Amino acid sequence: MELGLQGNIEKFTLPEIFQLIASSRKSGTLGIQKDDSIVMVYFKEGEIIYGYGPRQTFHLGQLLKDREIITEQQLEQAVDIQAKTENSKRLGEILTSRGFIDRADLEAVVTKQVEELLFSLLSWRTGSFKFYENQYPTDEEITVRLSVENVILEGLRRIDEINLVKDTFADFKEVYTISAAQGERTRDVSLQAREWNVMALVDGHRSVDEICNLSSADRHETLKKLAQLKLAGIITKTDQTESSAGSNLEQMVSNLANLFEEYLTEKSGQQVPESRLKSTLLELDN
Length: 286
Hints:
single chain; alpha+beta; two-stranded antiparallel ribbon
């Protein structure tokens, strides 16, 4: 196993583990265990393609019935057939062969089934994990393609805990910037309007505190959105601190003011070269 990825969730959170697999564009199976619950999450080139957990998985037939794609009678008939074949046939296979559903309906519900399983995983605070490279689900399974970033964001939207913020930010004076995609991987991210509004304030110069002060949302909501963006790998901490960012900006503004003053008063009978002014303006813009 080249990645050598295994350990405890207490030390590496599931969003961090998902991000590592995605950024490395790895293919294989991530096994996650807590007490007597085991979940398998399957990846292909960094994207989630399937997930299975006997105790956590939402029943496919129930999801189809809840969405009014099949009736109660059709579900009972399919379950009876499955029982007679001693579970050798998948429920989805029986439903499609009987003409109760089509392939598109089945794929949509399987996607929902996998998403719900993954969202429930993100609330786990304890447990262990291990990644098995190049191991995949059986050919019988209907696979999907899910963006890791979107799964993390949606899962964290459902968690309304102050601990999310406490565990994510050690210092509100830290400065964040938008992170770049790694490993030539294309990121498919769907952000809500409130997340866009907060992310627009992340510029590589403002601290977490400064972003909260400028945000139109209240402090708790802004911190939660920032935590979600960080855990999804969309923003990342810079080496710059709030004080250094502020002092650098103040220095550039001061330099510009001095140059303009010299330029206008023609100090010592000579104008300041326009090239110096343009150079300072470019520094300020960057």
